[in-house]
Amino acid sequence: MPMHIVVDMTGLTQILTNPITALVFRAILGGSLICMGRAFYADPMASFRGSSRPFPYDPWVRHTLRAMAGFCLWGGCFIFATTIAVQVFGFHGRGLAVVLLAIATLATWILLPRRPGTST
Length: 120
Description:
By secondary structure, the chain is mainly alpha-helical. Helix content is 70%, strand content 0%. The protein has one domain (10-111).
């Protein structure tokens, strides 16, 4: 008689309701979005160079990919800041949301990679 493996989703939710696990999971998610956004912002066409089909070069494609990478970078900063504010310090409220938006925007501006031709 074959055995059927049943995956119980309540086990996964119990793992994710642990505050330490939730903190680590959200921090890893935010950090990975930050790293991915920085890499794609610096060189938006990098992932298309290795593809088997040639990718037509259009300036708008590069700008669109760079804008999407900037949004990913901002999202990672927002997730990371929200994780620290809510999970670590226990802050909540609408005022916090505005402050977190400002912090994420400032962190994104600081973390944007510099263009190769500019000096800092």
